[in-house]
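Quick one - first record:
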Amino acid sequence: MTIRYASVDDLLEASRGSIQRLEPLDAYARVAAGALIVDIRPAWQRESDGEIPGSVVVERNHLEWRLHPESGASLPQAQAGQEWIVVCTEGYTSSLAAAALTSLSLPASDIVGGIHAWRDAGLPVVAGPTPVETVVPRHRTVTRSAPLGIADLA
């Protein structure tokens, strides 16, 4: 059975209804507890807006294969039970991507407002772009740091 939507907005609403959306500070706390952020933006956007230290870079077209532990093409971080927090620029594409991961029984959420909201919350952002399928270094030039002096993610 194929579910059909009248508009992209309807698809987005349905996707967001199937996932938990996190405010930036809540996402930051989840990372401290073991979640991993996956950045699905293309290189030009990561270069323009920066990257979250410690995040894993996986462009959207490879996401499901790289994060599902049994895909045969998964990254080392893709372990059973790993919690994923998807980030994009403003929190639209990340909602669709997180819903796709959830449909594969992977624990996934996204960040409300994307990297823009993360940065506006004063959380760490470093210069990019980092090569795909690698982890963003924690100690690169920070373009904005957290208000509490947090230098990198746990």
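second record:
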Amino acid sequence: MVTTSPSSPGRRSLPWIIGGCSCALVLVLLIGAGIGVAVFFSTRADPEETAADYYLAWVEEDCETFQAVTTEEFRADGLATCEDFIESAQNVDLRADGFTITGSWVDGGTAIVALEETYGVDGETWEGAFEIQMVRDGGRWKVDAVQETEEYQPV
């Protein structure tokens, strides 16, 4: 009668240990990649979202948001401090529903968002249009210039 010696317990479990460690490593890498993708997309607001944030910062006199969505160069032209911004925002009667985004264009690291707006000043209602020019700064779109495209007229 021929007998074979049983395999040692360590040899039978080695493939399972290697397989388990490999699966755990793959799982950790997939979770890390998922977190990286989520962070990447959560920090990249599109130009239209930035334009809406910019406009609503004026409506709500929200200096923190205004500074977050504008470049330093843009703010340097008369809006460098929160006091300057709030004083300017208080001079017009903007409403959250007073603007409509009519188009947007992206070309690499620059973008333009076109808006039409209605606002009040000194008891009169005005309508007009402007474009917000943006640049990529720190992974986000930021307002770098605003240009009137349609002369404002009383309604």
